[in-house]
Design brief:
The complex is a heterodimer of chains A (264) and B (13). By secondary structure, chain A is mainly alpha-helical. Chain A has 8 helices and 2 strands. In chain A, helix 2 packs across helix 3, helix 4 runs antiparallel to helix 7 and helix 5 packs antiparallel against helix 6. The chains are: A mainly alpha (264), B mainly alpha (13). Chains A and B meet through helix 2, helix 3 and helix 8 of A and helix 1 of B.
Chain lengths: 264, 13
Amino acid sequence: LPPMELSLPPLVQPSQSNQPFMSPEEFISRIMEAEPPEIYLMEDLKKPFTQASMMMSLTNLADKELVLMISWAKKIPGFVELSLADQIHLLKCCWLEILMLGLMWRSVDHPGKLIFSPDFKLSREEGQCVEGIMEIFDMLLAATSRFRELKLQREEYVCLKAMILLNSILCNDNCSTAAGLPKKNKLCKNLDSVIDALVWAISKLGLSTQQQTLRLGHLTMLLSHIRHVSNKGMDHLSTMKKKNVVLVYNLLLEMLDANTSSSS
Amino acid sequence: NTKLLQLLTTKPE
């Protein structure tokens, strides 16, 4: 990153609708504190992997991560003020995107590798043993590589994660729902806070106004790629479950069922 | 939604 020679104003001033909500600095501090701890797979990994053993390790880790994700989401400012139905809906839509963004963050300094956990690291080639997973590994590695190119900062990473969570369902200030307008306004305001925080984080990097604009665009454009790879991953996991390659249970089963055609 | 609901509605330790 260029040296911070100039103190340039942020690209966009914090939105007025958020006054007197929380400053972007405070918001980022809160979501940084919400970050889940590092977890370990804690399995005796026998290599070479078989299709079943790799899928089992991946799903075991995912199930552990999901539990921590719920605790993380509850610490995102404004999340628990949403209705329980909205909280459930948001988490069920975005859980795999959140897991994948976390994976990309852990892997950003390890080109060609996916760091699922400190004790579970896979190279691209190790995905050969699972039918259809190499395509997904390639997409994950490509997105990770992009974050590496952009030199993604921790403050930006936590903002993107919060953005994925709150952006899982479309918020619309003008829609009227059965529960009334205030519910949707709350979600919109929370999302505005995340945008303000991300803009603030970018403004600290000493970039020109144009570079700040581009960076905001580059980071948010990656969210659609994350959504795409999450959809692919969801289909893949569903296929593996239907073929009985892997037993999916507990919280992971609930979250997977919400995204498959068999769900009500 | 049993497990998800349980995690959302229990207080953090």
